[in-house]
Amino acid sequence: MIKISLPDGSIKEFPKGSTPLDVARSISEGLARNVISAKFNKGVVEVFTPLNEDGSLILYTWNSPEGKKAFWHSSSHILAQALEEMYPGIKLTIGPAIENGFYYDVDFGKHVLSDKDFPAIEKKAIEIARGKHPFNMRPVSKKEALDFYQSQDNEYKVELIENLEDGEITFCDHDSFTDLCRGGHIPNTGFVKAFKIMNVAGAYWRGDENNKQLTRVYGISFPKQKELTEYLELLEEAKKRDHRKLGKELELFTFSKKVGQGLPLWLPKGAALRERLENFLKKAQKKAGYEMVISPHIGQKELYVTSGHYAKYGEDSFQPIHTPKADEEFLLKPMNCPHHCEIYNAKPFSYRELPKRYAEFGTVYRYEQSGELHGLTRVRGFTQDDAHIFCTPEQLHQEFLDVIDLSLYVLGSLGFDDFTAQVSLRDPEKPEKYIGSLENWEKAESAILNAAKEKNLNYVVEEGEAAFYGPKLDFMVKDALGRNWQLGTIQVDYNLPERFELSYKGSDNESHRPVMIHRAPFGSMERFIALLLEHTGGNFPLWLIPDQAIILPVSEKHEKYAEKVLNSLENAEIRALLDMRNETVGKKIREAEMNKIPFMLIVGEKEEEENTISVRKHGGEDLGAISLKDFVNLVEKEINSTLKSF
Ligand SMILES: [Zn+2]
Ligand SMILES: [Zn+2]
User: Fold this and answer.
1) 552, 603 Cβ separation under 8 angstroms
2) Where are the alpha helices (DSSP H) in 427-558?
3) From CA 451, how far away is CA 234, in angstroms rounded?
4) From the candidates 157, 366, 527, 596, which is the catalytic residue?
5) For tag attachment on the chain, is the N or C end more exposed, with fewer CB atoms within 10 Å?
6) Is 341 a catalytic residue?
7) Catalytic entry in 388, 426, 575, 588
8) Is 366 tagged catalytic?
9) Is 518 a catalytic residue?
């Protein structure tokens, strides 16, 4: 018998040679039907793999990321078989599972694959899937493996095999198809019920542009047709909400080839929106005891050598700026932290004056490859809502609680209600990897864990994920389309205080090192606004949206009254536009809808006589004719319902 321990902590005995499927069956028939992959003692196994020793077993279904990985990895074998049967003589290279689906890189020889070919490939793949062919792993010798692919003239697989050790090479067979593979499959092809080719792209063999360009075929598959339909709908919605598209339509930002790739230019509406966002955070930070500081966009190279950022960013980022003076070198700042350390060093502090909380909307510059750039989410210059807290080790816990409060307030006010936190701790087995005393690490880790517990955060703990210089807590939010984004980080740092020789005088009159906390609830203004655009589809919260209302006079006759309304709204600090164009009200409404303006205020004969406005909400709800005063109250009430006080 062997002892199998399961994730719930239970340990069960099974006859030697039992499979993960047997274990699933012992739990429930339902689980046995749905289990598609498994992990045994840190290694991926098939559900039919006989288990011959004691160990811990995790069973995966489609609903887990690992289950999806096995599903999509297996689907790439199906794709490869379909392609090989349809295009004899092609050369298969590699085909991994990815975040959403899988791809296969193929040398198609002379054939150019296009979307016209997709339906036939999908049909073939589904035919193969219906055969319910089991995936069978088979060890092969290096010679056998090389012979197999040499006979097919496939120099790519030959190259892969040549880099493998004899004795660790496996093939995977299903139906009449064989592939080089390390394993991790669903039980048989029949689990795949829906199959879609998404697109094709060029990809160099091994990512090297000196090598031959291959065709990367992207696909996705699902255990139910309905799930594919839903996925495609979600993609459509994501396309509509793409922040690059919305940012252009709503005139928030632009890019210019002349200015340079990855360097966003904020248009007036976008700049004003960003300023509102900054002021919102500034106000909350002021209440939380932060002080604003300002630092330059460049610093001497030595500053970043001291901080260690030169080692991290120097070679691969913007190169030093030279001056007429020989040996003088400056760098565009990749991080604000070194500057803030020197602000702390400007005068001596006693423990009574701590914590010091320095905040800055600091712009930093990092060189990203042009292929990596993406709208506002991957740029070369961006502004962090940065702050650094310098405190004593005893104050760490309270500071963490306060930063969590601030982050929750910020996320809540912007409509992010679905989030989790990830706490990254040391790998307890490798203490040599980390800087700082064991005692301080223990203090910091328990400070973070206790703060997360006290604030009732929904959090997961990842051992071994901490940076070498300190543990951290990351907020992950789920957006309206169910996608996960990593947002604000709260990071403890023992390294920079050491490197910059920061100190304070303790109650014992001795000099001590403060602990540093880096935190940024938004991360960066650019990325956050991109995320907010996609989360809200451009329908920002009322307090933040560029134009809150638009006045639509029915005809020229009512212009004077319309201007009076505009004036009153401006006095009440409501951001409003006046559409005086000689167009029908119907057309003006349609355009205001497109521009996502929350309130349309229609004024005509009746409204002018009665000193009212007819209010139509974005989306079509008609509030009828109300007085201006009532409208101002309505706006205030709606703002107060989302923008909670801190
Ligand atoms: Zn495989
Ligand atoms: Zn920092």
Assistant:
1) yes
2) 438-454, 495-499, 525-536
3) 36
4) 366
5) N
6) no
7) 388
8) yes
9) yes
